[in-house]
Amino acid sequence: MKVVVVNHPLVTHKLTVLRDKQTNSQIFRHLVEELVTLLAYEATRDVKIQEVSIQTPVTQTKGAMLATPRPVVVPILRAGLGMLEGMMRVIPSADVGFLGMVRDEKTLQASTYANRLPDDLTKRQCYVLDPMLATGGTLIAAINYLIERGAESVTAICLLSAPEGAKAVEEAFKDSKTPIAIVTGAMDEKLNEHGYIVPGLGDAGDRLYGVV
Ligand code: URA
């Protein structure tokens, strides 16, 4: 499994503002969108393209465009929704599928409560949007779900990750034939006893949409 920590001053700057508890939801949402576009650039490095012939105003030439079938972007509800707009700005012709996953705050186990995805993901490169890779439970469940439906590869885009979560995902898919990658803005220090990333940014869903 490939883990890419995107090391870029703009990513660090935006993440620092996100982490600050004084940052309000409006600015937080805006920054998440901007950050995702930066992470998406790295995450889509291996997106499939196919050769095409085009006519420029000057001559006939060959180029390349996104291959079909198009990639599938899969935000994990609820917090992943805040990343969708930024991702679609980079790859607007992708299909979008939704996966609703919730983690039990006591057991930290993830379960699926909703899904809206094609049944057949054969030949589809999937990009999972999940802002916080904490224990890894949600992401492992989501990746398994996509692999079962035949996904060709799965790349998770996470704003922040904990080493415990990255290790858990790595362990879960060490024998998988499906290429798995994690692209993240930072690898934080650890998880605390409540399963929160430290230093982290708190509850990403609450920071994006308010406490419900
Ligand atoms: N989910 C969050 O929103 N924040 C964390 O720190 C961990 C999981």
Automatic annotation (TrEMBL):
Positions annotated to bind 5-phospho-alpha-D-ribose 1-diphosphate: R78, R103, D130, P131, M132, L133, A134, T135, G136, G137, T138, D203
Gene3D superfamilies (UniProt xref): 3.40.50.2020
Biological pathway: Pyrimidine metabolism; UMP biosynthesis via salvage pathway; UMP from uracil: step 1/1
Domain Phosphoribosyltransferase: 5-210
InterPro entries in UniProt: PRTase-like, PRTase_dom, Upp_B, UPRT, UPRTase/APRTase
Catalysis performed (reactions): UMP + diphosphate = 5-phospho-alpha-D-ribose 1-diphosphate + uracil
Activity-regulation annotation: Allosterically activated by GTP.
GO molecular function: GTP binding; magnesium ion binding; uracil phosphoribosyltransferase activity
Names of required cofactors: Mg(2+)
One Pfam family here: UPRTase
Signal peptide segment: none
Binding site for uracil: I197, G202, D203, A204
Protein origin, superkingdom: Bacteria
First-tier enzyme category under EC: transferase
Cofactor binding note: Binds 1 Mg(2+) ion per subunit. The magnesium is bound as Mg-PRPP.
EC number of the protein: 2.4.2.9
GO cellular component, one term: cytoplasm
Keywords assigned: Allosteric enzyme, Glycosyltransferase, GTP-binding, Magnesium, Nucleotide-binding, Transferase
Biological processes, Gene Ontology terms: UMP salvage; uracil salvage
HAMAP family: Upp_B
Family: Belongs to the UPRTase family.
Biological role stated in the UniProt entry: Catalyzes the conversion of uracil and 5-phospho-alpha-D-ribose 1-diphosphate (PRPP) to UMP and diphosphate.
Entries under NCBIfam families matching the protein: PRK00129.1, upp
Listed name of the protein: Uracil phosphoribosyltransferase
